[in-house]
Amino acid sequence: MREIQGNIWDYQKTAVVAVTTNGQVAKGGKAVMGRGVAAQAARLFPWFPGRLGACIAKDGNHVHHLGDNLVSFPVEQSPYEVPDLGLIERSARELAALADRAGWATVVVPRPGCGGGGLAWHDVRPLLERYFDDRFLVIMAG
Q1: Under CATH, what is the fold of the domain 2-140?
Q2: How far apart are CA 96 and CA 104, in angstroms?
């Protein structure tokens, strides 16, 4: 795992980008795209909330490959909860396994739960290090 600074969306054409998400689906079937990278993804890719909502409804709140070099990375069950360290660790494990199966060379992940979620990076970092090798870039806005 390597740590970098920059704009996560600068990598979307050349790497897989993980979008930190929650597991809530609105009545219309679209995933609730709270704040941060999730809200940005919803603005940049209007299809994203509907596609993610369908995946959550079918298979639950897990890492989902949604196309266009985008994957979900669940950090909480609802946007009204504090991010869950156990869920973040499970998402890291699922993302690493998916990257192995898909043969992805580079995956860019924001610091999960550390922006609007309020978690401390020193608490989250060790969870990611267990699963992420040098293919994974953890980006901090810079």
Answers
A1: Leucine Aminopeptidase, subunit E; domain 1 (3.40.220)
A2: 10
Going by C-alpha positions, the residue among 139, 123, 55, 34 that lies closest to residue 84 is 123
Q: How far apart are CA 47 and CA 30, in angstroms?
A: 9
Burial of 19 (0-12, 13-18, 19+ CB in 10 A): buried
The predicted-structure confidence for 34-65, as pLDDT tens digits, reads as follows 889 999 999 999 999 999 999 999 999 999 99
Neighbours of 63 (CB within 10 A): 22
Judge contact between 86 and 94, C-beta under 8 A: no
Q: How many CA atoms lie within 13 A of 28 on its CB side?
A: 6
